[in-house]
Amino acid sequence: QVQLVESGGGLVQPGGSLRLSCAASGSIFFRNSMGWYRQAPGKQRELVATITSARITSYADSVKGRFTVSRDNAKNAIYLQMNSLKPEDTAVYYCNLRWYGMTEYNYWGQGTQVTVSS
């Protein structure tokens, strides 16, 4: 069974920084994609950033230039460095892991709250 555990959320002032971490455990195919998604109250979950095992990254336009996603393949871990945070970044951030075999394997963490407020 695959499990994802996030950490690093919290309360930060506008313009501040936070770093989220996500560690995956279990039987994980080495060729995969991990990423961060977020969901604000009353809104749908949206993509923030993804990174493949080959370290190919993609970002939502709203976070480009402010957020950086990285990963440690040896630890099955990903990180999200968030700088210049804005109140509109407030959301629950979820870690995601997926890969494709005979079917799609898609796993989510429990989420970590990020609140940007003065």
Q: In percent terms, what proportion of residues is strand?
A: over 45%
Please provide the ordered H/E string of secondary-structure elements: EEEEEEEEEEE
How many helix segments?
0
- Please summarize the sheet with the most strands: 7 strands, mixed
Rg, Å, rounded: 14 Å
Tell me the total number of β-strands: 11
Q: What's the N-to-C terminus distance?
A: 40 Å
Q: Structural class, from secondary structure content?
A: mainly beta
The stretches of 5 or more residues where confidence is low (pLDDT under 50) are: none
Helix content: under 10%
Mean pLDDT over the full residue set: 96
What overall geometry do the principal axes of the alpha carbons give? globular
List the helices and strands and how they pair.
Elements: E1 3-7, E2 10-12, E3 18-25, E4 33-39, E5 46-52, E6 57-59, E7 67-72, E8 77-82, E9 91-100, E10 104-108, E11 112-116
Parallel strand pairs: 2-11
Antiparallel strand pairs: 1-3, 3-8, 4-5, 4-9, 5-6, 7-8, 9-10, 9-11
Describe this structure in words.
With 118 residues, the chain is an all-beta fold. The protein is built from no helices and eleven strands. Strands 2, 4, 5, 6, 9, 10 and 11 form a seven-stranded mixed beta sheet that branches. Strand 5 (46-52) and strand 6 (57-59) form a beta hairpin. The radius of gyration is 14 Å and the shape is globular. The model has no long low-confidence stretch (mean pLDDT 96).
Keyphrases for this structure?
0% helix; seven-stranded mixed beta sheet; 118 residues; 55% strand; mainly beta; globular
